[in-house]
Design a protein that fits this description.
Blueprint lengths: L10 E7 L6 H9 L6 E7 L6 H11 L4 E5 L8 H11 L4 E6 L3 E2 L3 H11 L5 E9 L6 H4 L3 E3 L7 E3 L3 H8 L11 E3 H6 L12 H10 L4 E12 L5 H7 L10 H16 L5 H15 L1 H35 L1
Parallel strand pairs: 1-2, 1-4, 2-3, 6-10
Antiparallel strand pairs: 4-9, 5-10, 6-7, 6-9, 8-10
């Protein structure tokens, strides 16, 4: 391991897991591969019933000064938010970063993001792009599926409170991955961590919404993590069960919007842009018939444009042939 960088505070890395025996050792290895080594690793078990519990306990035993194992009382399964909060309550670092057990960090993740905090002390969180990682399978057909998920077009800059929240509501593709962030611990404590009523879907976006509305966030151009794409991920399971859809109204998205509206009211958020963006997101749920008509009209308009384009091309081709 590299020699710890001096005068830079300890970083706490929280890895939550539930039955991740297939991937967890690769996630842990990516932490030990960091070029910055002044960190602690908290392996937080959400009631696993496979061999991942034994794997995590063995790492804690083999590296007692670097790794700790945590679990809920009675080895209960309490959901992702409660499990992350358990890690937060037990961490020691000034900075906290999050890594799910099926994802990995790239070696310079901590070193590079800590440098950004040195250059931009006003930032409360640093985040960046994430690689949507299909090629982990080793299959040639999956290599071409890999892509970079960028948060926004303007990078390497500081965003004031509410700005990223507005952007996320306006464009759902503006989505931060948990593995891409490094956050000041004092901010996490100030916003009371994760909302434990969100056990799975949107638990991360609820947490980031609280940050976006509260503090400045620096969005960097670097990509220091890989978000593994596989059928058993939380998002894919929700998609398969019909509980979530990336573009159509769905119950988990509505639960998030209702929570956000209540939270923004309680926090006395005055930003007009973010409120307008929220109202627009709730419109399909409040007026489903009108929303359906709008979608039908959009599809018809698209079809008519394609038909007219085809007619123009056909006429033009016939004219040229005649000449």
């Amino acid at each position: 391991m590299a020699k710890p960088m001096t005068q830079i505070p300890l970083v706490s890395i929280i890895v939550i897991f539930f039955n991740e025996e297939i991937f967890i050792e690769e996630a842990i290895a990516s932490v030990f591969a960091q070029t910055y080594s002044n960190w602690e690793l908290l392996l937080v078990d959400d009631g696993s019933t496979d061999n991942s519990t034994d794997i995590a306990c063995q790492y804690a035993k083999d590296f007692p000064t670097k790794v700790r194992y945590l679990e809920h009382e009675g080895h209960l399964n309490r959901g992702m938010s409660a499990t992350r909060n358990l890690g937060i309550r037990n961490c020691q670092g000034k900075y906290i970063t999050l890594l799910d057990a099926d994802d990995i960090f790239l070696p310079q993740k901590l070193e590079q993001q800590l440098k950004i905090f040195e250059l931009h002390p006003e930032a409360a969180m640093v985040c960046g792009a994430t690689q949507n990682w299909f090629s982990w399978t080793g299959k040639p057909e999956d290599v071409v599926k890999d892509s970079i998920r960028e948060i926004c077009t303007q990078l390497d800059c500081l965003y004031r409170p509410s700005t990223l929240m507005t952007k996320f509501l306006q464009d759902k593709s503006v989505l931060v991955a948990t593995c891409s962030v490094l956050i000041r611990r004092e901010l996490i404590e100030e916003i009371d961590g994760f909302e434990e009523s969100f056990r799975g879907m949107f638990e991360d976006q609820v947490f980031f919404a609280k940050i976006y509305l509260k503090a400045p966030v620096f969005v960097e151009s670097g990509c220091w993590d890989r978000y593994r794409q596989h059928p058993n991920s939380t998002c894919n399971v929700a998609l398969a069960k019909g509980q979530f859809h990336s573009s159509k109204p769905n119950p988990t998205h509505l639960a998030f919007l209702n929570w956000l509206e209540n939270y923004m009211t309680k926090q006395n958020i005055k930003d007009a842009e973010v409120w307008q963006a929220l109202r627009e997101q709730k419109w399909p749920y409040q007026y489903p018939a009108l929303y359906l008509l709008k979608r039908i009209n959009k599809k018809l308009t698209y079809m008519i444009r394609n038909i007219l384009r085809f007619i123009r091309q056909t006429v033009a081709g016939t004219t040229i042939h005649s000449n």
